[in-house]
Amino acid sequence: MRDQIFTEANDLVDFTFDKSVANVFDDMVRRSVPGYQSMIEMVGLMVKIYGQDNTNYYDLGASTGAISLALSLNNNHDNNRIIAVDNSIEMVKKCKNNLAGKVPNLKIVCGDINDISFENSSVIVLNLTLQFIPVKQRQALINKIYQGLNPGGVLIVSEKIHFDDEQKQAEVTKLYLDFKRANGYSELEIAAKRQAIENVLITDNQHTHFDRFKIAGFSQSLCHFQCLNFASFLVLK
How many domains, in total, are found in the chain? Predict the structure, then answer.
């Protein structure tokens, strides 16, 4: 279904992952996130390399299930369980419908990822999720993920980022807005979406992400993919 949520000028409230968003989410994210398909494909590559037999894979902030599906389709290891978690009941419903009969050994949980216990895991994915977690809670979550990963396991994080250099930020923002225009969003839609999400999606810069991974205890971290103001990080325990 095509995203037309912000086509009319209305009194806006903060963005939420309600039924209206869940119904159009796949179209919204494809048209709003440069490199989105490549992010998913890279997760598929990573699970082949870093997945371990007899372990769990976690998809945190699973939304409609694209990451869980990529983990399953590309998995070449034995006896793995995919655990998809989202705190939106409407997203969970959509995820269940999308993945029904497609992903074996799947558990879908409606809950807060901060309350999840990570056990015997070799791959954990935060795909466009950490940016919606309150900033003061992010380090604790990354610490908890580190503790729940097996040695040799990986965390994969994809996020919208910002740049401290004002000129660079301005140039990337201009390109990003042109990306959205090229994907059919009107000026009204772009402005309305920005207003609705500005208090909900809080970005970090790359340096903050790398510091957070180091504090948690991860041995290595790198930015393996970036398109404009969206970046993906591979973090190894």
Answer: 1
